[in-house]
Amino acid sequence: xxxxxxxxxRHGDGTNLVGVxxxxxxxxxxxxxxxxxxxxxxxxxxxxxxxxxxxxxGTDESARIFIAHMTSTFGLAPRPRDEGSPQRRRYRxxxxxxxxxxxxxxxxxxxxxxxxxVESRFGLFPTFHKTTIGRFNSPAWARYxxxxxxxRFHNNAVLGQIDLLYEFAxxxxxxxxxxxxxxxxxxxxNDFDEHxxxxxxxxxxxxxxxxxxxxxxxxxxxxxxxxxxxxxxxVPAAKIVFFNSLxxxxxxxxxxxxxxxxxDYLVTATxx
Length: 272
Fold this sequence. Notes:
Layout: H1 8-11, H2 22-25, H3 28-33, H4 47-54, H5 59-74, H6 95-104, H7 109-122, E1 128-129, E2 131-132, H8 139-148, H9 158-173, E3 183-189, E4 197-200, E5 205-217, H10 220-223, E6 229-235, E7 240-242, E8 257-271
Antiparallel strand pairs: 1-2, 3-6, 4-5, 5-8, 6-8, 7-8
Helix pairs in contact: 4-5, 6-7, 7-8
């Protein structure tokens, strides 16, 4: 089944938590305009965190404050096991566990949860999870929904954790020397089965429909390890969920990976 190119997969479900039409968020026009986005209520309900962040002078200090806040708020510190105790420790979902699962396989259950977070917050449906998703009444959609709703990953307010991660990323990007300038990023592919071509502008420039959450890298050589065809895109700051230097330690460290919200992108496709 070919990938979705129009209809609901282009415009989203019409509901989101950012106050901007989902169809616009998923468009190339949004990428060109590069407006800011914020998830409703996240900063307002975490005023102390963002006041502390505003008072910091350096990235290392701000990351430390963020990690400490997440650890204390969501109980993410490792808990020692009592010797001789047969009681099993309760699984506590965390943003780091989701990132680790994504790093291992973006089509994992953790990947489905992250794609579901994008769907609920930005109103953009995934176009791929293990296989192309082209309609609601399909086995592919049913598998995605089953995995994104898995009870193992829906405790400890895990979607709220990702909300805070996104807002921290946006706070950090706002303080770059070049402001909110779009990031020049790369992605290696071997074919376009996962990324339907919407329009061909010339031999190299095409508009692709990327999955609602997609991995890029800031290093072109790293991208070449994942495919012979290198996609170069300028990703607006508001679509950046996570990037390599945001935290000092994380599961995506090795490949300069950047997690970005998808939709239609104008990309330049070249062979390495």
